[in-house]
Specification:
Elements lengths: L5 E4 L3 H15 L7 H5 L8 E6 L5 E10 L17 H8 L4 E9 L8 H17 L5 E9 L3 H6 L3 E2 L4 E3 L2 E11 L1
Parallel strand pairs: 4-5
Antiparallel strand pairs: 1-2, 2-3, 3-4, 5-8, 6-8, 7-8
The structure holds coenzyme A.
The site of coenzyme A has 18 residues, from β4, α4, β5 and α5.
Length: about 180
């Protein structure tokens, strides 16, 4: 499916709603999060929301994506900056060495066809494009749900913490660094 996927930053309210709906289909219905938890993170409405639609325009995947401002070794796990638009993201990436995505979700009907891989690649390419202007190494840092963390191993991510429990979910920090 990935060739026919369209992946973009949500710039319209309808796109954002589509992205949130996909997120809810995975994280509320399957993992038991409350809807509020999915959107009411501090400054969430200033993050980049990424939406994947299939060849027919049906929303099939989404994630939230932000640049990270510092180098990996000195980064506290919860540190993020939240750009509001692509332009402000570009501005924030100016001094950044990497990024973070989370709430990566694919609708049940869209699974097993490379949508998650497409979203991950989109975030990585965006990060690389920004970082290579001032550095030769980029990184991505994520807090994965333990149930899904093996998927990230396939994309070159490595485990970066012990497994831990947060709001009833088993999570684990993972990271990837690569040359740009
Ligand atoms: C996990 C999820 C995002 C995968 O989406 P998807 O579009 O079906 O994934 P893809 O088709 O892009 O698969 C990419 C690769 O990861 C593998 N994979 C997918 N889900 C996996 C899982 N739960 N565990 C291990 N590997 C997995 C696939 O087999 C594929 O590997 P391959 O290319 O070697 O065949 C989707 O099942 C989902 O939304 N789950 C609920 C929410 C969730 O767990 N999100 C991640 C939280 S951190």
């Amino acid at each position: 499916m990935s060739r026919r996927l369209n992946i973009k930053i949500c710039t319209k309210q309808e796109e954002l709603q589509d992205a949130i709906k996909v997120r809810e289909s995975a994280f509320v219905e399957e993992y038991g999060y409350s809807k509020e938890e999915l959107v009411l993170y501090p400054l969430d409405n200033q993050a980049l929301q990424i939406l994947a639609t299939d060849y027919s325009g049906t929303p099939v995947g989404s994630c939230r994506f932000t640049p990270l401002p510092q180098d990996l070794d000195n980064l506290p796990p919860s540190s993020t900056l939240n750009p509001q638009t692509e332009n402000s993201a570009r501005e924030l990436f100016k001094d950044s060495q990497g990024g973070r995505f989370w709430w990566l979700a694919v609708s049940p009907a869209g699974r097993g066809r490379g949508v998650a891989g497409g979203l991950i690649k989109y975030c990585e390419e965006y990060t690389a494009e920004m970082v290579r202007k001032h550095s030769s190494t980029a990184y991505m840092r994520i807090r994965a749900n333990y149930k899904a963390h093996k998927m990230y191993l396939r994309f070159g991510y490595v485990v970066d913490s012990e497994k831990f429990l947060l709001a009833g979910q088993e999570l684990i920090w993972m990271k990837k660094t690569w040359k740009v």
